[in-house]
Structures are given as C-alpha cells and as structure tokens.
Amino acid sequence: MSLRSRVALGLVVPVAIVVSYALWSANAASPYFPPLDVILTRFRELWLFDLVSSDVLPSLKNLGLGLLLAVIAGIPCGAILGRIRWMGEMFGPLLDFWRSVPPIMLIPPLVLILGIEDSAKVTIIAVGSFFPVCVATADGMRQADPTLVDAARAMRLGPLKTMVDIYLRAGSPAILGGIQIGLQAAFVLMVASEMLAAYRGIGYLTMQAQVTFDSVTMWAGTLLLALLGFTANAVFVAIRNRVLSWHTGMRVSRASS
Amino acid sequence: MSDTSQPRLALTDLSKTYDGSTPVLDGISLTVGAGEFFSIVGPSGAGKTTLLRCLTGLMRPTDGQVTLDGIPLSEPSPKMSLVFQEYTRSLMPWASIGKNVALPLRARGVPRAERTSRVAKVLAEVGLSGVEAKYPWQLSGGMQQRVAIARALVTEPEVLVMDEPFASVDAQTRMDLEDLTRRLQQDHRMTIVLVTHDIDEAVYLSDQIAVLSKNPARLVEVVDVPLGAERDQIHTREMSTFADLRGRILRTIRDVQTQPV
Ligand SMILES: Nc1ncnc2c1ncn2[C@@H]1O[C@H](COP(=O)(O)OP(=O)(O)OP(=O)(O)O)[C@@H](O)[C@H]1O
Ligand SMILES: [Mg+2]
C-alpha cells in the first residue's frame, strides 16, 4: 500500500470523530461538551501563543531535561547491570519491582521532599523515565552476537570501544524501545505532577479549569496535551526509524532470502 | 623449511575439556612454519573450532600451550587475524562495509584518512572495490565472506586463521575464494591456518595437512603436500599426487572412525 493511501486510511477515523463531535455539540447545549468552535477559539486564545512561554515551554523543558538525564544515567547503568553478572543479580529484583509499580506513585513523596519547583519536576520525570531506559539497556546487552563479540576480542578492540561499537549498537533497538517507554512515562509524569502540585503549566491550567467548572478551558488544555503527546511520540518514532534503518533492512533481507 | 628455523606457531600437548563434559581435544602437538599454508581436517564436531579458539588465544586450553614466534600466547595477538566459520554473524549489520573493514584499524588507533585508504586497497584485493557504503546484509553470502577476509587482511597479519571459510558458498564462488586465498598468501607471505572438512580443498590449498580424529580429537597424522607453489583448479586436481594424497587422507579418516573407541 502506498504511503499516501495509508495516511488517508489512517485519517478516516479521527476525522469522523471530530466531525461527529462538531455536528453533535453545535446544538447539544451540554455544560460538559461545549461546541467545537468554542473550544477551538479558546485553544487559540490560550495556546497561540499567549501562554506558550509562561506555561507550555517550561513544561516541555522539564520533560526534555528529565528525559535527557534519564537517558544519560540509564544507559550506563543498564550497560553495567547487563554486562556485570553479579550487579545484574543484585539489582535485578529492584528493577522487576519497579516495572510493576505505576510511575506516578513517585509524585507524592518527591513533591513532599523536593517541593513544586521546576527542579522537582525534572527530578520526578528523570527518575520515572530512568527505569525503563535502564531495564531496556540491560536487556539490550544480550543482543550482541557472540561471534561478533569474539571477532572484537580477536581484533583486540578495547573494552570501551567494544561497549560503544558492539554492545550498545547491537542493543540499540531495545534501548530505543526503552527510551520510547521512558518518553511516555515522562509525559505522564509531566502532566500528573502539574495537576497535583504546581502553580503553572498545562496540566495545572487544565486541572484548575476542571475544578472551577470551566469546561471550555479544560477541553482546550486536554486537546493541547493530546496533540503534544502525539507529536512527541511521532517525532521519536521518526528518529528511531532513521537510527534503526539497518535493523529494518537486515530483517527485510533475511525474510526475503 | 630448515629444522633450525623457529616455527611461527607451535602447539604443545594442547588439551581442552569444556566444563562438565568429556575431553574435546587430547594432547595435540603440531608446528606451523612461517609462510606455510597449513590445513586442519577432521570430521564434523571433532573439535576443529575449539582448536582454533585455543590457538588464537580466544580460549584458554585446559592443558598445554601455544607459542607464536616462540612467545606463549594467552590472548589474541595483533599478528594474527581470524575469519570465523559464521562469518555473516561476525560482521556488524549496523555498519557499512567500509566501517566493518576499518574496525580492526580503529582498534589500533589508525587515523581516519589512513583507514579509508587501507580499506579501499584491501577491498580491491578481494575484488570488492567500491562497496564501502553498502551494508553487509545487502551483499550475497560470497561477498560477505570476502568482506570478512578483507577485514582480517586489513591489519596485514602474519598469520591468518580461517575456520571453514568456504563451507556455505556455491562451487564456483568457492573456487574463486580458494584461489584468492592462495594468491593472497603468496603475495603477503602469510602463514595460513585453515580448518576445513573438505579433504579436496585441503589438498588443493595446503603445504601441510593435519588430520584429526574425533571424540576426543587427537592428531592422527600430518601429511606433506608436495604439489608446488603454483596451483590450478583443473591441473592440480588432475595430478596423480593429488589423487594419492586425497585417497591416503580419506583412508586415514575412515580407519580412525571405524576403530573401536
Ligand atoms: N562452549 C562449549 N561448551 C561445551 N561444549 C562445547 C562448546 N563448544 C563446543 N563444544 C563441544 O565440543 C565439540 C567440538 O565442537 P567444535 O565446534 O570445536 O567442533 P568442529 O570440529 O568445529 O565442528 P564443525 O565441523 O561442525 O564446525 C562438540 O561436541 C561440541 O558440542
Ligand atoms: Mg567448527
């Protein structure tokens, strides 16, 4: 199927939903479901671009910084846990425990300890997205082909170069998958921490609107969050597909041979 | 080869037992002279790969030792290069051919400009000019094998060790690669240790052939191959010496296998 027809097909359901909502809400007169054009007008008033520098950009900055810290710390930690047997055995149960706990559980204790400043938000996001990156990197260490590892040893590639050029590259599909999960966790934590404890930000404004029964602003905020989340993920997937083009190419050539 | 010259590679009483199993190698001693084409033949599963892993320093033998130019070997040496039995899996699928072949040079800290020119030169030698930007999985099996050989040659090793390098390519490619290997050996005055289970290939290529038994692998005999330096796929294989040697080695292997253990 061509790219254009795939895009067209993928747009059918979202467009249908938006159009149905617009038609239905235009004369529904429900306090919970304001007409679409009213929501869009509020969306434009708030987000294009009055509150961008005061409420949107700081949130996104926290998200980016937190995720960056998580990646910078998570990859080396995962590499150590994946490569050093006893370290893996020692910390494995902790990571398993973490996997089964929802990340927003972090918010109450960290807010209590760190407060509601940006640095606290960055910490919450970084801690929450650290674990998926770390776990995925540790798993990724097993993806290197033993023959290739032997080849690296035979050519006396040093430990650092072997880690960077062999283990991390071989594990990159897993690691990028972990970062994607980390991004989703980071997004949830960004929004939730603003909803629960903040004095600005998209999450805060949306939550305030709900508390004050301002359903139009609430929907405008919800819409922005949905669009941001979708865009962040789409950008990530595009980057990942570029980085992993070798992986796709290899699988296609194996499948056809 | 005069008896006074030191062998390039010497194995003394080499034994290997994997944890919790019966011995795989049992007291193997042999020497390979400088510039020699030395083949090791033996039945499938005999322990040929195990032997190569020990003699390249990738694995510690349980007993005995390996010396390279008289110096005991305990880890891979920069003088040696290895072509793996599973050559496809020994290449990096995420890196271009150029980067794959340059990897051993990167390991040695060779500057980029020199890497590029040496990679181009060695790829030309194996008949793969201009594939630097391609990825391994875009090439045929025979071409990937040439890439693996090029990567082994790029460091200009004194000893090239190859583990059944031509097992999974078609007959024509196989002959081409055999001749290529033989020519490279002559051009670079390399010592080659080749493992194969194809007796014809061993006779065609080698100056000496070591025959291994199975369960455990012992050295049965070392056969000299007096076929001269110039070999030709048709003429050499038609020579009576070729047929005699081939018959003799096959008979040895059959005798060993039918003996009660
Ligand atoms: N890492 C290992 N641990 C335990 N046993 C092993 C290991 N590697 C090989 N063996 C065993 O040692 C024996 C010899 O294996 P090896 O791969 O050296 O044989 P080979 O002669 O190279 O076989 P082939 O011709 O199939 O390549 C086999 O019985 C194999 O099962
Ligand atoms: Mg083998």
UniProtKB/TrEMBL annotation, chain A:
Domain (ABC transmembrane type-1): residue spans on this chain: 56-236
Membrane-topology annotation of the record: Multi-pass membrane protein
UniProt-listed CDD domains: TM_PBP2
A Pfam family annotated for this UniProt entry: BPD_transp_1
Compartments reported by the entry: Cell membrane
TM helices/strands, residue ranges: 63-84, 175-199, 219-239
Keywords assigned: Cell membrane, Membrane, Transmembrane, Transmembrane helix, Transport
GO terms for biological process, alphabetical: transmembrane transport
Location, primary (coarse class): membrane
GO CC annotation: plasma membrane
Coiled-coil ranges (or none): none
UniProt-listed InterPro entries: MetI-like, MetI-like_sf
Protein family: Belongs to the binding-protein-dependent transport system permease family.
Name under which the protein is recorded: ABC transporter permease subunit
Automatic annotation (TrEMBL), chain B:
Gene3D superfamilies in UniProt: P-loop containing nucleotide triphosphate hydrolases
Entry keyword annotation includes Transport: yes
Keyword Transport: yes
CDD domains, per database record: ABC_NrtD_SsuB_transporters
Keywords per UniProt: ATP-binding, Nucleotide-binding, Transport
Cross-referenced InterPro entries: AAA+_ATPase, ABC_transporter-like_ATP-bd, ABC_transporter-like_CS, ABC_transporter_ATP-bind, P-loop_NTPase
SUPFAM superfamilies in the record: P-loop containing nucleoside triphosphate hydrolases
Domain ABC transporter, first and last residues per copy: 9-239
Cited SMART domains: AAA
GO molecular function: ATP binding; ATP hydrolysis activity
PANTHER family with a match to the protein in the record: ALIPHATIC SULFONATES IMPORT ATP-BINDING PROTEIN SSUB, TAURINE IMPORT ATP-BINDING PROTEIN-RELATED
This protein's name: ABC transporter ATP-binding protein
Organism: Nocardioides albidus
Biological classification of the source: Bacteria, Bacillati, Actinomycetota, Actinomycetes, Propionibacteriales
